[in-house]
Amino acid sequence: MHVNSRHHPALLDDELDLALLAADDGAEPAAPAAPGRIVPVILSGGSGTRLWPVSRDGLPKQLWALASGRTMLQETALRASGTLPDGTGFAPALVVCNQEHRFLVAEQLAAVGIADRRIVLEPVGRNSAAAVAAAACLLAEDDPEALLWMMAADAVVADVAALHRLLPAAVAAARAGRLVTFGIAPAGAETGYGYIELGAALPEAPGAHAVARFTEKPAAAVAAEFAASGRHLWNSGMFVATARTLLRELGEHAPEVLAAVAEAVARRQQDLDFTRLEAAAFAQAPSLSLDHAVAEHTRQAAVVPADIAWSDVGSWDALWRLGAKDAAGNVAAGDALLVGAEDCYVRGEGILTAVVGLKDAVVVATPDAVLAVHRDQAQQVREVVRRLQATHRKEALSHARCHRPWGFYETLILQPRFQVKRIVVEPGRMLSLQKHHHRAEHWVVVAGTALVVRDAEEVMLQENESIYLPLGCVHRLVNPGRIPLALIEVQVGAYLGEDDIVRLEDAYARG
What we know:
The structure is a single chain. It contains 11 helices and 30 strands. The chain is of the alpha+beta class and about 500 residues long. The chain has 3 domains: about 300 residues, Spore Coat Polysaccharide Biosynthesis Protein SpsA, Chain A; about 70 residues, no CATH class; about 100 residues, Jelly Rolls. The strands form 7 sheets. A 6-stranded antiparallel sheet has the order 20-21-22-29-24-27, with no helix packed on it. It has a 5-stranded mixed beta barrel with strand order 8-11-9-10-14. A 4-stranded mixed sheet has the order 16-17-18-19.
């Protein structure tokens, strides 16, 4: 990869030089945003541990349909569509996500008609400041005045029309060099949010105010004082700013973040349809939220008060508050049955979940884990995850069903020396050409058609036909048909871990 060392003349500070290094890796560059359009920057790097056991690192909450029929990522992306009341439009979205989720993110966006987008891969999680810095560096290469609308992929905005009416005020303040957020009237003394003290109105941006003070996640007594003051708003986590403003403020208040990310951007590579940030440089960035890194310190913060029915969906109790309730105040999702229950949230993901006689409870069941908690203690779910991680339980990170770019697999039985899985391959897709050092496999097709490569031979299998793959053989599974291929895999061997896969060739450029 050749690194182009040109600097953009509009950014003069020496410490920002790396932020405008462009990379030339032979890939077709993304088209710059049309002048005047807003670039949605969707941050999809969170893991949502407080919504365990549904949300886990392998499939976090933004990739689930929790508050509507669409996933939270899809709802966030669709929020940035159409035209604002003042005629301003939106450029294609830039999504920053965990590299392990790249195919799911691409598929979910395509499923709602969003094919024109740019997906940037974080090699490791470094919180929102680094993700925003990457987006600003990339967009500044084409236009330092590019206007970024930064949104977490895992929040709910029920009144999108109201948000669109407020965006022009945020845009005007951002054009004047401000870092603008949307402030939500406090519904209580939440300690998990940042609080914004309203300052003077901004004459150059009617509807926007200067921020007198920004306080991130205060103690309970301070939060209660703020909530009752009438002068404080919750920080929604949505920010609007130009790329120039972001780079300037990051350079002043978080130079270590900017330097590491700028280097990672300069050394990026194109991987299929994705922009992969250079891992070693990106890992050097301190893990800081944009709030801690910049918003608490900048003298250019502004806020637009916003009544938009916003929620960060930070707990199961929040989902209960958002959900449609029955006559007894219960919210039921999935395969759930409630008898004599009141004010409960019950969710059955792939398993019947019955609740009798409980009040103010959350019960969530998945095929491999069950959570039961009082709604008042919903924030403590992350302590469950912490303890699972401390004992290296796989349930802390992954589900029984694991998604792959070709489809998914799920473990049905796991015992010493053998494992049974269900594997589903989407039409036209294939697994990598691979072999194993410690296990043999038996495949039985239960739906669709399978083309199996086994060493030098190719075998076509139909429903109710099977094949044996001895230890060490080179093999691949292909779905040549037009319906999903489903098969049962029986693994037998001394070691059955997923890391016993030696990939010899892969259509999805995985290692």
